[in-house]
Design goal:
By secondary structure, the protein is mostly beta strands.
């Protein structure tokens, strides 16, 4: 959180430009020096001086008692000055910045700037949250560039989690997923909060049955300045970052920051190189009694190289080598090999997020929050493929064209199967708060409009492996038919609209010992789309209306102990791809059959928890229970050579478990932290496969490790700092029949560094080393594409149901990164 000027800084000055503006108090050296952590968020330091040596204007930081006031009247008397040291300062945060005080009705875990600033600077929000209870991150590269990543929370995957940056949604408009490398640069995060159970009542998300990841930017500094850093490390990784703070602009009270970063890295396995450029900005105006308006956003452009996702058989045979990697050189003699050339699998993406959250204090009792937002995204998710030069189809329509594909052999040539998505999204949230007595009423409305256009053109590959325009935006470079039209494997356009009304009341009773939250949200969602390829389907539409009640209670037993309980409901509509037919241009057959009779996922979840905020220990224990109908599981499908996201209906599911996290306040500059989860998630019914049923009732749900645990130890004396972390993830199943699974794995990271004192115009120059996966474990980090069954099995009605191999993420190998940074 931003440094408050009404609070004195600790003897060691906090790290970062937003903390430079407060004066440094005297160091406590008297016999009265003491720690009183029972004052929440503070350390109290008694500094003794004789009254004759103290200026008359030097007033105590707290109000004097009568005896203290009498003592100051004596020329020889001593008086006590109390300085409050904030827990927000580096080295003073419980658990090294991995745990915060909480007072709400649901489970929330946080990561603060103290922890973030010690990690690798290109670490994504997923990686930064991986130590929190319930969070299981499956990544493909150690540096965080690759989009081949997933996070599950209590067994619920990426697409079941809402991502919100200061009131604006970051989820993909069509697939609900989030790509964390696009969100923001880690230096600009003030806090990452993960609510494991459910989203807030006013959150602009539809899919958050798995919880909400709430991201907060740092506020711009009140004085002009900035920060800069450079990094270099394994796999020829380099990164440069600069942030400029404007300070107060022309005495208007408006202040802002703009940052820019550039990063690049080689693939840690196989050929390829990733490159990324990113811009973050935030401008803020504060006035009156709590009025606040800001304009913030992010722009990201990146080209990344694909990491192939192996099956269990290829993993056991080749590990991180061989067929589990793309080819470094193009093979013009063999189209099947040529399709695996790495340059045909580069992924280009551009995103722009923008929002303008406003808080207005209308009266002593009435306030208004409004957040308009907009989002633009364009990407091409290509893959190498082969195509016949004749006998083609556009949708289900046969074509007489014969293609001229360079290097074609026996009527088959190599093409790049592009898959482009261009989406626009805009909307706003509004909430009117009215406080009276012990009630805080809220009435709100959320509107969201999405325009999503997805197509699959193809680009011919030259005999040297070159395929022009990685973005597939230039129409002259893609394959065209004799009538001038593009050859397409898919083409659909969807307009989606969401209207949500919500009402709630926060009641504070018995001097705030008892807090009760009541809420109700009615969500109406419509989709209207067209499939422009010839075939039986043209217009599609779906409409949903779901009532979502909730209840939460928090009982403060005393100043150190709390109990909380909540019950919430959530729903999620299937991905847009569930609505549309897709076709094979080589045969006219359908890859997938769309349906407007889609079933929404609906869930009821409960949490019962205990919090402890003691003198040294801060912690929580949470019991949770979920009941799902029409559980939506995110997976991947190969469409004409491109890897595309989709969902599968997993029927009913029950998930139960317990989360625990404990952090200690700093002791001799050391701050330990531990977290863990036990999860028991089971499938409630047999699942349909073809004309038969699989015997899945009672089996363990996919991507749901029974045990997870993490531990971290931080040290920070203001100059020397370090963080050591270790994370254990138990085995998790990749199929609904539980006939194939990922083994358990343990990984560890280490960060060490040194902050120098200020020098001339440089503020705390810092040197840091980060070591990622320090033991160089080679492991499968998660399930990329689950299947119903890996092995052939007999169904309930006696037929043989053929198995299909799941695919997996290979976790990133060892990496080291050196970073030099400074404020100015």
């Amino acid at each position: 959180m931003a440094y408050r000027h009404d609070r004195a800084t600790p003897p060691v000055r906090p790290y970062g430009p937003t903390h430079r503006e407060a004066p440094t108090p005297p160091v406590c050296r008297s016999r009265y020096r003491s720690l009183l952590p029972v004052l929440i968020g503070t350390t109290v330091c008694f500094s003794v001086a004789r009254a004759a040596d103290t200026p008359a204007t030097n007033k105590p930081a707290i109000q004097q008692t009568a005896s203290q006031a009498h003592a100051t009247q004596s020329p020889k008397a001593e008086h006590i000055i109390v300085h409050r040291v904030s827990d927000s300062a580096p080295g003073n945060q419980p658990g090294g910045g991995l745990i915060h005080l909480q007072d709400g009705v649901k489970s929330v875990s946080t990561v603060s700037q103290d922890f973030i600033s010690k990690q690798a600077p290109m670490a994504t929000a997923f990686q930064l949250a991986s130590m929190l209870p319930g969070a299981n991150v499956a990544s493909s590269d150690p540096m965080g560039f690759s989009p081949n990543t997933n996070i599950t929370v209590r067994g619920l995957d990426n697409s079941a989690i809402g991502y919100v940056l200061e009131g604006m949604p970051l989820n993909d408009v069509a697939y609900y997923s989030g790509t964390p490398s696009q969100f923001a640069d880690s230096e600009n995060y003030q806090e990452i909060a993960l609510a494991q159970g459910s989203a807030d009542l006013d959150s602009p998300v539809l899919n958050a049955v798995g919880g909400l990841m709430n991201l907060t930017f740092r506020d711009p500094a009140k004085k002009a300045g900035g920060d800069a850093s450079v990094s270099y490390g394994s796999y020829n990784t380099n990164r440069e970052f600069i942030r400029l703070d404007t300070g107060d602009i022309a005495h208007t009270g408006i202040r802002g920051f703009v940052s820019y970063s550039h990063g690049a890295t080689d693939n840690w396995r196989g050929p390829g190189r990733d490159e990324k450029q990113h811009v973050d900005f935030k401008f803020l105006k504060e006035w009156g009694q709590g009025n606040r308006a800001s304009l913030l956003g992010s722009f990201n452009t990146t080209i990344t190289s694909w990491y192939p996702e192996p099956t269990m058989d290829t993993w056991k045979s080749d590990g991180i080598k061989g067929q589990n990697n793309l080819l470094a050189r193009y093979d013009s003699s063999n189209p099947d090999n040529g399709a695996n050339y790495w340059r045909l699998w580069r992924d280009g993406e551009r995103t722009l997020y923008g929002g303008a959250p406003v808080h207005l204090t209308l009266t002593d009792r009435l306030s208004l929050d409004v957040t308009p937002y907009a989002q633009f995204a364009y990407g091409n998710w290509p893959g190498g493929s082969t195509m016949s030069t004749s006998g083609l189809y556009q949708g289900t329509q046969a074509l007489s064209d014969t293609l001229n594909l360079p290097g074609a052999q026996d009527g088959v040539g190599v093409v790049r199967a592009d898959y482009t998505q261009r989406s626009y999204r805009s909307g706003f949230t509004s909430a009117l708060h009215y406080k009276t007595g012990w009630n805080d009423f809220v009435l709100g409305y959320w509107y969201d409009y999405g325009d999503d256009n997805e197509q699959q053109p193809f680009t011919a590959v030259q005999t040297n492996g070159y395929a022009p325009d990685i973005w597939a935006e230039n129409g002259k470079d893609v394959i065209r038919l004799s009538n001038g039209e593009r050859l397409l494997g898919g083409s659909f356009h969807t307009i989606s609209q969401t209207n949500a009304l919500f009402v709630g009341d926060h009641m504070s009773l018995l001097h705030d010992h008892l807090a009760i939250d009541l809420g109700f949200k009615a969500v109406m969602m419509s989709r209207d789309g067209t499939n422009s390829l010839p075939g039986p389907q043209y217009h599609v539409a779906s409409n949903s209306m779901e009532p979502l009640p909730r209840l939460g209670v928090r009982w403060r037993i005393d100043g150190e102990n709390q109990l909380f309980f909540n019950a919430t409901t959530n729903f999620r509509a299937p991905d847009q791809t569930a609505l549309y037919n897709t076709y094979d241009p080589s045969s006219g057959e359908m890859y997938g059959t769309g349906s407007t009779d889609v079933r929404n996922e609906y869930s009821i979840s409960e949490e019962l928890g205990y919090r402890r905020t003691g003198r040294w220990i801060i912690g929580s224990l949470t019991l949770f229970n979920y009941n799902f109908t029409n559980r939506q599981i995110s997976t991947q499908a190969v469409q004409n050579g491109s890897i595309v996201s989709t969902t599968m209906n997993a029927g009913g599911q029950t998930s139960r478990g317990v989360d625990v996290e404990i952090g200690l306040r700093p002791w001799h500059h050391f701050s330990p932290y531990v977290s863990g989860e036990y999860l028991h998630a089971t499938i409630d019914n047999d699942l349909m496969s073809g004309g038969d049923l699989l015997r899945t009732r009672g089996r363990i749900a996919v991507r749901s490790p029974t045990l997870q645990a993490a531990a971290g130890l931080s040290y920070d004396d203001g100059h020397i700092f370090g963080v050591a972390t270790v994370h254990y993830t138990g085995h998790q199943y990749a199929t609904f029949m539980n006939d194939e699974r990922v083994s358990d794995h343990t990984t560890g990271d280490l960060a060490i560094g040194y902050r120098f004192s200020d020098h001339v115009h440089l503020h705390q120059p810092t040197l840091r080393m980060n070591f990622i996966n320090i033991t160089n474990e080679h492991y499968l980090s998660g399930v990329a594409s689950p299947t119903l069954n890996a092995k052939d099995t007999t169904g309930v009605y006696g037929t043989t149901i053929a198995g299909s191999a799941p695919s997996y993420y290979i976790g990133g190998g060892f990496a080291a990164l050196f970073t030099a940074s400074t404020g100015f």
